[in-house]
Amino acid sequence: MDSMLEQVKNFGVIPVVVINDAKDAKFLAQALCNGGLPCAEITFRTEAAVEALKIMSREFPQMLLGAGTVLTKTQVDKAIEAGAKFIVSPGFDSEIVDYCLEKNIPVFPGCITPSEVIQAVKRGLKVVKFFPAESAGGLDMIKAMSAPYTDLEFMPTGGIHAKNLENYLSFSKIAACGGSWMVKSELIESGRFDQIEQLTKEAKALVNKIRK
Ligand SMILES: O=C[C@H](O)COP(=O)(O)O
Ligand SMILES: CC(=O)C(=O)O
User: Fold this and answer.
1) Please, which of 82, 129, 151, 170 could form a disulfide with 53 given CB 3.0 to 4.6 Å?
2) Which candidate in 54, 78, 85, 129 is catalytic?
């Protein structure tokens, strides 16, 4: 778990992907690798997600790949089988979190209230998702909520982009930010992988500037 967390922190940004056609998976993976962020959260919001995860984990073993929008135990199983190294869910579902802990796969449940954070801390989690970040109060809310939990770190996602990334990453309790701005579905579907690579490079350059 700890080395996986180190990787997440080093990336600083985790691209959050909604993929509609698994045939795009390897081009997407290549663009992310070329752009300097060999990692992704593939959301289980589409039929193609499992197959895309399988292709990416098989053909790009150097990537850190996880599954997002995981809402059921069956999806946890499918994600692990497809090569996911971490599980993300938009909210705190104790059944999913406990199942992931049983299966020994790192899990980042969404926590936007102190009551949810308590549940995560009780289970020994070191990093939680903060989703939807901008709508749920942004960095001010994270700062206020994190004060009592000195060891807990956050992965804000939702409404984060190149213009507000720096603000989030400047706070020490942000492990990494999640975001779709460099991997928008429109870019994937129209085959603009060169643009995905360029936006990924720009995102990584911002991380490097802030965390030098
Ligand atoms: O549902 C949203 C995704 O999880 C990421 O949010 P975003 O598209 O605002 O970056
Ligand atoms: C928001 C997010 O990361 C998820 O759907 O799991």
Assistant:
1) 82
2) 129
Nearest to 203 by CA among 153, 151, 168: 168
Q: Would you tell me the crossing angle of helices 94-103 and 114-122 to the nearest 10 degrees?
A: 20
- Give pLDDT tens digits for 57-113: 999 999 999 999 999 999 999 999 999 999 999 999 999 999 999 999 999 999 999
**Rounded Cα gap, residues 128 and 111, in angstroms:** 6
> Is the residue at 210 inside a domain?
no
- At 144-183, the pLDDT tens digits run 999 999 899 999 999 999 999 999 999 999 999 999 999 9
Active-site residue flag, 129: yes
CB 47 within 8 A of CB 77: no
Count of other CB atoms within 10 angstroms of residue 165: 23
Whether residue 192 lies inside any domain: the answer is yes
Whether this model's ipTM surpasses 0.95 comes out as no
Q: For the chain, what is the mean pLDDT? A: 97
pTM value?
0.96
CATH number of the domain where residue 116 is located: 3.20.20.70
Proximal ligand: closest to the CA of 66: 2
Give the CB-side neighbour count of residue 85, counting CA atoms within 13 A: 17
Name the band, by pLDDT with cuts 50, 70 and 90, for residue 2: confident
User: Whole domain around residue 127: which residue ranges?
Assistant: 2-203
Cβ < 6 Å from ligand 1: which residues? 16, 157-160, 179-181
What is the dihedral angle through the alpha carbons of 11, 3, 40, 182, rounded to the nearest 10 degrees?
A: -10
